[in-house]
Amino acid sequence: MNEISYLFLYFTLLLLAAPFTGYYMARILEAKSLPSEKWVFRYLGLGNLQSQTTKVYLKSLIVFHLIGGIFLFLILFFQKQLPLNSLRLSGMNWDLAFNTAISFITNTNWQAYSGESQLSYFSQMVGLTPQNFLSAGVGISVLAFAGRAISSTTKQEFGNFWQDLYRSVFFILLPLSIVLAVILLSQGVIQSFADTIQSTGFDGKPISIPLGPVASQVSIKQLGTNGGGFFGVNSAHPFENPTPISNFFELFSILFLPAASVFLYGKSVGSFRHAWIVFFVMLGLVLLGWAVVYISELGSQVVWEGKETRFHLVESSLWLSATSAASNGSVNSMHDSYSPLAGGVAMFQIMIGEVIFGGVGAGMYGMILFLVLTVFLSGLMTGRTPEYLGKKIESYDIKCVLVGILSPTVCILIGSAITVMIGSGYSAKGPHALSQVLYAFSSASGNNGSAFAGFSADTLWGNLALGICMLIGRFSVIVSVILLTGNMGKKKTTEGGLGSFRTDSLLFGTLLIGVILIVAGLSFFPVLSLGPILEQILLTSGKSF
Fold first, then answer.
1. pLDDT score, position 498
2. Does residue 241 sit in the same domain as residue 382?
3. Which secondary structure element, helix H or strand E, spans residue 387, and what is its range?
4. Residue 497 has what pLDDT?
């Protein structure tokens, strides 16, 4: 298959599958009852779940993450005393366990460790894999809450967190993950509890080849935009991604549910036309990013450095573009080996803040902040009262928007500045050193999880600083969106008239792109100029780092 055909097949399938899947997700989340649901909640002692207010919904979400984080931390810290640990691996140091626990409950899956050599089967299966489902389910739940709130009229309650989470995991994520896992198994992705294979390397020395329950984790890491690989090199490893077919399905899964979440939101707010505008804005941005990456790599003198020769360039470059746009973080090539311009594109897509498709649910609820900001700025320029989908935008709403957009930005810039000052983690010199640090804090604050390979994160400062950035990057946006949409849900919905600003037009889509790029540009252009942009300029003059 040539490269044009590959791209056409990929995006055509995405265009066809996303609307129907989004509609299905909406039907599941808004159903009056689902099979086994009442029995499960009765068994858990929850009885008939009642709709929750904004504060109660948010409180339930935070308590759930707190319990999940503590549980995962204990598994990782006491790993040596737990079963399914045939290699007798010791537990993680407390700071690495802290970082990893936060990483997985925030859907970041930042890995300052190598999974096959530092984690037991029990830690991978019981600790990490459930969080892949649950963190993605939370993203869908928050988006469902936001859609209900915006489409309501003067209500105070917008669904139940526990019901939304249960439906997201067991009726959306789990069935799709089972199907994908079976497909991956058919392509040779391993799923085994056997001990490591003892063999002999090319140099004649004995080597150990690790195995494990891989397919079950790979399927949800891709579908849930988690990205945490069973192996340290992620989907560049032949046991995680052995064939072009497995590569296509894993790559397609990165954008599949984030794209479907756009139409879930459109169905919730009663405007598929609005959803199509948002979808094409996201699609246009990811295609633009890929084109820059691909052209930059074609002109590179070391085009195959850090890439698998079993995948052609369009597969590697599209994966880099998709995984950095969708806050997935999985890789099938090493991002540190790309040209400075290509690495800068990946970095910039993360910095924008999970809105070019973004995480499952998270990309679309993050985009709500930019949608409201675009309408607000448009209203200021035209002298109209700003309204989004019939809801007036007031000062409280804009405060929520600014907190949600600026909090991750502050983490990226301050975290990078301190790390460079203390000289922690990076191995490169010159502008590439700044790029390594900047990418790490962008990835953590943007809940992406990928990294430049030259950055050593497993230090006390790295684990604590990046862990805190992951928390702020995830929950500042969630809290802002829930408070924003919860406040809008209390307001009366006004009918659109001749003076109303339409949010389902090409003009609105163009303004939305402009606002996203301007906000990100004003925030990050100076520091990008000192990192990847300067490095690219120096590289063209024959200097490298």
1. 57
2. no
3. strand 387-388
4. 59
User: In terms of domains, do 388 and 262 share one?
Assistant: no
- Please tell me the predicted confidence (pLDDT) of residue 514: 94
The Cα 129–Cα 123 span in angstroms is 9
Give the 3-state secondary structure of residue 481.
helix
Task: Report in angstroms the alpha-carbon separations of 525 from 83, 323, 494, 521, 538.
Answer: 49, 22, 39, 5, 17
CA distance 437 to 423: 10
Enclosing H/E stretch for 256: helix 244-269
Helix/strand/coil (H, E, C) string of 483-508?
HHHHHHHCCCCCCCCCCCCCCCCHHH
Q: Does 173 lie in the same domain as 55? A: yes
What is the pLDDT at residue 1?
A: 62
Domain boundary among 254, 269, 284: 269
Identity at 200, one-letter amino acid code: T
What is the number of other CB atoms lying within 10 angstroms of the CB of residue 517? Answer: 13
Residue 279 within any structural domain of the chain: no
Bridge partners (DSSP) listed for residue 53: 157
Same domain, 237 and 366: no
Contact criterion met (CB below 8 Å) for 503 and 476: no
Residue 486: inside a domain, yes or no?
yes
- In 161-233, DSSP assigns E strands to 197-200, 206-209
* Residue of 538, 267, 243, 522 lying closest to 405 (CA atoms): 522
What are residue 487's DSSP bridge partners? none
Model pLDDT, residue 63: 95
What are the residue ranges of helices labelled H in 31-119? 37-43, 54-77, 94-105, 115-118
524 and 384 within one domain: yes
pLDDT at 499: 60
Helices 362-382 and 272-298 cross at an angle (nearest 10°) of 100
Number of domains comprising the chain: 2
Which domain range does residue 498 map to?
362-540
Tokens at 155, concatenated: 């209500």
Helix (H) or strand (E) holding 392: strand 391-392
Residues of the chain with pLDDT under 50: none
How far apart, in Å, are the Cα atoms of 258 and each of 333, 361, 443, 518? Answer: 22, 6, 18, 23
As a whole number of angstroms, the distance between CA 192 and CA 215 comes to: 9
3-state secondary structure of 213: strand
SS3 181: helix
Q: Look at residue 361 in the predicted model and tell me its pLDDT.
A: 94
What SS3 string covers 295-324? HHHHCCCCCCCCECCCCCHHHHHHHHHHHH
| Residue 328 belongs to a domain | no
Terminal Cα distance for the chain, rounded: 36
The most distant pair of C-alpha atoms in the chain lies apart, rounded to whole Å, by 78
Q: Among 211, 234, 269, which residue terminates a domain?
A: 269
338, two tokens: 């790309």
Residues 189 and 57 grouped into a single domain: yes
CB 14 within 8 A of CB 280: no
pLDDT of residue 8: 92
pTM: 0.94
Query: Computed from CA positions of residues 297, 302, 303, 308, in that sequence, does the dihedral angle turn out positive or negative?
Result: negative
Q: Is residue 277 part of a domain?
A: no
